[in-house]
Write a structure and sequence with these properties.
rod-shaped, Beta-Lactamase, alpha+beta, disordered N terminus, 6-stranded antiparallel barrel, 5-stranded antiparallel beta sheet, about 650 residues, OB fold (Dihydrolipoamide Acetyltransferase, E2P), about 30% strand, single chain
C-alpha cells in the first residue's frame, strides 16, 4: 500500500509524499465489492480507511441518502459497542457547516469511563454542493495534535469517497440487472405457456415451468369461484389429481389465506412477510409430512387489483425461499394473472358468460358512471311500460278475393254445333242479349218433318170421322198427340238454340270465339255470367286468427287493382270450410262491401284487415311469437 512520508519537513503545507509498503489481501475488499448491504459496505469502506491512518483509534461514518426525510446511516469502527456522542455531534456539525472540523474529544467505551483526550477530525465527503457522508476519525491520546495532519486525513478520506458516491449507482445497476433477469424469466415463462390453446393445458404448463425454474417440489394453481372460495385447478407434473382430499383442501386453504390477506405469504416468513398469518401454510406443511418445508403463496390479479386466484410453491427440503425468489414469483403472478383471467373467461360455458354479462350490466346501471347507458335503459323501460299500458286496434290481416254474390252458368241445352259467339269472358251484357247461337238447321228440318206428319195424320182422322170408324179414330188421335209433342219439342229446341243473357252482368269465364263450328255436348258449361250490382268478399283467415273474428265485425280491404282506395267491409258469415294454401290452413270468411265502386270486378284479390277489438300494443306486436313459442313448448316439452 501507499503511506505518506512524514520525514520530510513541510509536509503539512504540501501534498503528502507516498512510499511503497507491502500489504496483504484484506477481507474488506470482498464486502466493498458487494453493493447489496449498506452497512457491510460502509463498514468495509471505513475499515479500509482507518487502517491506512496511523493513530486512528475509532471512527464514525454518517451516510445520508438523497431523500432528506430518511434517517442517516451510522457506522462505527471498530464494531465494538462504543458510545461516541462526541463523534455523532461532530458529524452533524460538519454536515451542516460543510467544512473540515478538528476538535479534541474523549476516546473510550462510554462516557463514564473516559480515556485521555484525543483529536477528532470530521470531513464532509461528496463532490456536489451537498455532502453525501461525513467521516469522523478519532486519534488516540498518544498521537499529539501536532503529529495529526488534518489535511492528510481529509485527503485520504476524500480519495476514497468515490466508493460512497458510486454506491447508489451500483445498487441501482444491481437492481436493474436483477429486474432484467426477472423480466427475461417471466417472458420465457409466458412464451412457454402461450403455446397452449386451452385453459387446462395452459394451467398444467404454467405449474410445470414454475416448478422447474424455481426448483420447487410442487407448484399448484387455483382460481376463485363466485362465492370467494379458491378451487384447485392444476398441480405440477400431474395430468389429473383428486380434487376432493386432505392434500387438495390444505392447498386450497393456503391459497385462500393468501387471497384473504391480499398479499404474498411465506412460511417460514421472510422479513417482508413477517406480519402475515401463516396458519394454513403451517397446516399444509404438516399435511405433506415435511415440518421443515418452505411454502410460499402469491396472489394472481386480473390487472385491475382484483384477485382471481393464487399460486402455491412448495419446497419439502431445507431450501427456504429467499426474497429474490419471492420477488420473481410475484412478478410472474403479475404478468400471468391477466392471461389466466382471459383464458378462463374465453373457455367458460355460455351460462357463465351470460351471468357475467348480467352482473356487469347491473354494475354499469347501478354504478356512478355510464350516464348514456342509464338514460337509454330508462328510455327502453319507459317505452315498454307505455306499450304495455297503451291500447291499439287489433286487426286480423288475411288475403281476400272478390266474388259475385250471384253467378249463373250458361250450359249447352242439347248436343249440337256452335254457330255464333258474339261475346267472350270480360264482356258486359244486358238482359236478353245473345250469348251463344247453336246450329239450328237440323232442328228446322225436324220441325218441318213433324209438322208434315201431323198434317197427314189429321187428314186420316177426318176420313175416319166421315166413315164413323171409331177404332181407327182412337189410333189416329194418339198419333196426332205424338206428332204434336214431337213438334213442340222441336220448336222448344229451336228456341233454345239461341242462348240469351238472363240478366245484365259480366261474362266471368268462357271464350268460344275460336271454337265456331265445333260440337258441344249436352250440359257442357259454355260461359259464366255474374251481375255487377252485388258482390261478396271471401277472406281466407288463418286458423290461428279465426278465433278473433266474429260476424258483424267491420274492417277494410285494399284490392290490388285499387290499392289507394280501401273499401269498408262487414263480416257476414264464418264458414267451417278450411282451405290449404301455402302450407297453412285458413277458413273462408264471407264479408259484404259497404259501398260498391263501378271499378270492382269479380276475381280481384287484395288484403283485408278485420277490426278485432282493442288490445295493448305490446300484446299486438308479440302475440304471434308468444303463440308460436307456446305451441313449440307444448310440442317438445315432456
Amino acid at each position: 500500500m501507499f503511506e505518506p512520508d512524514r520525514s520530510r519537513p513541510g509536509n503539512s503545507d504540501h501534498a503528502p509524499q507516498l512510499r511503497m509498503v507491502a500489504a496483504g489481501p484484506s477481507p474488506h475488499w470482498d464486502a466493498l465489492s458487494d453493493a447489496g448491504n449498506d452497512l457491510a459496505f460502509c463498514l468495509a469502506w471505513l475499515s479500509l480507511q482507518c487502517i491506512r491512518l496511523p493513530g486512528a483509534a475509532t471512527a464514525l461514518l454518517m451516510l445520508r441518502r438523497d431523500d432528506q426525510q430518511e434517517a442517516p446511516t451510522f457506522v462505527t469502527w471498530p464494531r465494538t459497542g462504543l458510545d461516541l456522542p462526541d463523534l455523532c455531534q461532530l458529524a452533524e456539525r460538519a454536515y451542516v457547516e460543510r467544512r473540515v472540523i478538528v476538535l479534541p474529544g474523549r476516546i473510550g467505551l462510554d462516557a463514564s469511563h473516559p480515556q485521555p483526550v484525543g483529536v477528532l477530525v470530521a470531513t464532509p465527503l461528496g463532490a456536489g454542493s451537498r455532502p453525501i457522508a461525513v467521516a469522523v476519525v478519532a486519534f488516540a491520546a498518544s498521537a499529539s495534535s501536532a503529529s495529526v495532519d488534518p489535511d492528510f486525513v481529509s485527503e485520504q478520506l476524500r480519495w476514497g469517497s468515490g466508493w460512497l458516491e458510486a454506491l447508489p449507482w451500483a445498487q441501482r445497476s444491481k437492481q436493474s440487472s436483477a429486474r432484467v433477469a426477472q423480466a427475461a424469466s417471466c417472458l420465457d415463462l409466458l412464451a412457454a405457456i402461450a403455446e397452449q390453446p386451452r385453459f387446462v393445458g395452459m394451467a398444467i404448463a404454467t405449474t410445470n415451468e414454475l416448478a422447474t425454474r424455481l426448483r420447487c417440489d410442487r407448484v399448484s394453481l387455483g382460481l376463485m369461484r363466485r362465492n370467494g372460495a379458491v378451487r384447485l385447478c392444476a398441480i405440477s407434473h400431474s395430468a389429473s389429481f383428486k380434487k376432493q382430499g386432505l392434500l387438495a383442501d390444505a392447498i386450497e386453504n393456503a391459497m385462500e389465506e393468501a387471497v384473504d390477506q391480499c398479499g404474498s405469504v411465506v412460511c417460514p416468513p421472510l422479513p417482508s412477510t413477517v406480519r402475515t398469518v401463516t396458519i394454513a401454510h403451517q397446516a399444509l406443511a404438516q399435511a405433506v409430512r415435511a415440518p421443515s418445508a418452505s411454502i410460499m403463496s402469491v396472489v394472481l390479479g386480473d390487472g385491475t387489483g382484483r384477485p382471481i386466484g393464487a399460486i402455491t410453491f412448495e419446497r419439502h427440503g431445507n431450501d427456504a425461499f429467499d426474497p429474490e425468489t419471492l420477488q420473481l414469483a410475484e412478478g410472474v403472478a403479475a404478468l400471468l394473472g391477466p392471461i389466466v383471467g382471459l383464458q378462463r373467461h374465453a373457455h367458460r360455458l355460455f351460462a357463465g358468460r351470460v351471468v357475467d354479462g348480467v352482473i356487469d350490466t347491473m354494475k354499469a346501471l347501478l354504478g356512478p358512471r355510464r350516464l348514456g347507458l342509464k338514460l337509454g335503459v330508462l328510455s327502453v323501460v319507459a317505452l315498454g311500460l307505455f306499450l304495455s299500458i297503451a291500447e291499439g286496434e287489433h286487426r286480423v290481416t288475411a288475403k281476400s278475393v272478390l266474388e259475385a254474390e250471384v253467378q249463373r252458368a250458361v250450359v249447352a241445352p242439347f248436343e249440337g254445333f256452335i254457330q255464333a259467339v258474339p261475346v267472350r269472358a270480360g264482356d258486359t251484357v244486358q238482359a236478353g242479349d245473345l250469348i251463344v247461337a247453336l246450329d239450328d238447321r237440323d232442328l228446322v228440318l225436324d220441325r218441318l218433318k213433324w209438322r208434315a206428319e201431323r198434317d197427314a195424320v189429321v187428314q186420316k182422322q177426318r176420313a175416319a170421322l166421315a166413315k164413323h170408324d171409331r177404332s181407327s179414330l182412337a189410333v189416329l188421335n194418339a198419333q196426332i198427340q205424338q206428332a204434336e209433342s214431337q213438334l213442340a219439342l222441336a220448336e222448344e229446341k229451336l228456341a233454345r238454340a239461341r242462348i240469351l243473357a238472363p240478366f245484365s252482368g259480366i261474362i266471368v269465364s268462357g271464350d268460344l270465339s275460336q271454337a265456331l263450328g265445333s260440337p258441344v255436348e249436352k250440359g257442357k258449361v259454355l260461359f259464366e255470367i255474374a251481375p255487377l250490382s252485388s258482390y261478396r268478399l271471401i277472406v281466407n283467415v288463418d286458423e290461428r286468427d279465426v278465433r278473433y273474428v266474429a260476424a258483424g265485425q267491420t274492417g277494410a280491404v285494399a284490392l290490388a287493382g285499387m290499392p289507394w282506395s280501401p273499401q269498408a267491409l262487414t263480416v257476414s258469415v264464418i264458414t267451417p270450410v278450411t282451405v290449404a294454401e301455402e302450407g297453412r290452413n285458413s277458413f273462408r270468411v264471407e264479408a259484404r262491401l259497404m259501398e260498391l265502386s263501378p271499378q270492382l270486378r269479380p276475381g280481384m284479390e287484395g288484403v283485408a284487415k278485420i277490426h278485432a277489438g282493442q288490445r295493448s300494443i305490446i300484446w299486438i306486436w308479440t302475440r304471434a311469437f308468444a303463440e308460436w313459442l307456446s305451441l313449440a313448448a307444448w310440442k317438445y316439452l315432456p
